[in-house]
Automatic annotation (TrEMBL):
InterPro entries: GPCR1_Superfamily_Member, GPCR_Rhodpsn, GPCR_Rhodpsn_7TM. Its main location: membrane. Residues 21-270 form the G-protein coupled receptors family 1 profile domain. SUPFAM superfamilies: Family A G protein-coupled receptor-like. It is found in: Membrane. One of its GO terms (molecular function) is G protein-coupled receptor activity. Keywords: Membrane, Transmembrane, Transmembrane helix. It comes from the Eukaryota. GO terms for cellular component: membrane. It holds the Pfam family 7tm_1. PANTHER family: G_PROTEIN_RECEP_F1_2 DOMAIN-CONTAINING PROTEIN, GROWTH HORMONE SECRETAGOGUE RECEPTOR TYPE 1-LIKE-RELATED. The chain crosses the membrane at residues 6-30, 42-64, 70-99, 120-146, 173-192, 213-232, 252-272. It comes from Astyanax mexicanus (Blind cave fish). This is G-protein coupled receptors family 1 profile domain-containing protein.
């Protein structure tokens, strides 16, 4: 096995592990009604689903690029547009999760009135609508400048293929910068508010407040990695013109650090740190044997002489 094949194999192992964990968590979410009625877990489930689909599509595109496999332009354009929508959806959902924690900690008496099925639906519509702004602009701009005959050709599918002219990439950067600046300000606002609430909280509430504070910090780190993911194509294109071997190594490094890594944080933040969710997750991960062993241990403890 040469170095290129080994890298591809390692990426497939990482992707497989990630997808298994995500599918197990999505299954756990669907099995319990209490999770399906909680805004925090609904946003978490959306993050899992979006990240899983995004990872699969990104992995397929990585393999196409590695082996220079050309596909028809029309499906390539559709896939690239959809990938960009999903890439923007994840950080927007993270911001929504931070806002949900802000309402739960700083406005506990109004949390039940604010977090309703109607506001959840409205929030999800806003997230997906904002996620579509930059990709739809890029899609329409590409169709406006591309030669009609090019749509019926084949090419190695990358997101950069949508940028026929420099002004398209520059406009996309401007839109994303405005979007991520707004998201950063919201996360900083929620962090400061929750930090103030943590200092003023009683001893009983201080533990949950501090945990929410750490959650916002982790989301901020995720958002930083997501921002870097949008900048990667512009960094990679420079190395593509300079050295193709360095470009290949950089692309693999960026895929692992800025695509796989931030999507491993979501299961960690809510799937493993959340005691309620982790208890149910462990039950399904062990195929229900945890209940059997707990019952068996209880029977043993009741025997005479134990």
């Amino acid at each position: 096995i040469n170095g290129l094949q080994l890298k591809v194999m390692m990426v497939q192992i990482l992707v497989g592990i990630f997808l298994y964990v995500n599918c197990l968590m999505i299954f756990t979410f669907l099995k319990k009604e209490i999770f399906r009625e909680d805004t925090r877990y609904i946003l978490f489930a959306q993050t899992l689903l979006v990240d899983s689909v995004l990872l699969v599509l990104s992995d397929v595109m990585l393999i196409w690029n590695t082996y220079l496999y050309p596909i028809h332009m029309i499906p390539c354009i559709i896939i690239c547009t959809f990938v960009t929508v999903l890439t923007t959806c994840t950080p927007l959902t993270l911001v929504a999760m931070c806002l949900e924690r802000y309402v739960a900690i700083c406005m506990p008496l109004r949390h039940a009135d604010i977090s309703t099925s109607r506001t959840r639906l409205l929030g999800l519509l806003i997230i997906w609508s904002l996620s579509c702004i930059a990709p739809l602009f890029t899609f329409v701009a590409f169709l406006a400048v591309v030669h009609p005959g090019a749509l019926f050709s084949s090419a190695v599918c990358t997101v950069e293929i949508l940028y026929e002219q420099d002004w398209q990439a520059q406009m996309r950067i401007v839109i994303l910068q405005l979007l991520f600046l707004t998201m950063t300000l919201i996360i900083v606002f929620t962090y400061i508010k929750i930090m103030i609430a943590a200092r003023a909280a009683s001893t009983d509430k201080k533990k949950s407040t501090n945990k929410s504070l750490r959650t916002v910090i982790l989301h901020a780190f995720q958002l930083f990695l997501c921002i870097m993911q949008f900048l990667n194509p512009y960094i990679e294109i420079v190395f593509l013109k300079l050295d193709i071997s360095v470009y290949g190594q950089l692309r693999y490094a960026n895929f692992v650090i800025f695509i796989i890594a931030p999507r491993c944080l979501s299961p960690l933040i809510y799937g493993l740190r959340d005691e309620k969710f982790f208890h149910v997750l462990k039950h399904y991960a062990l195929f229900g044997f945890d209940t059997f062993f707990s019952g068996f241990k209880g029977c043993i403890s009741k025997l005479p002489g134990t």
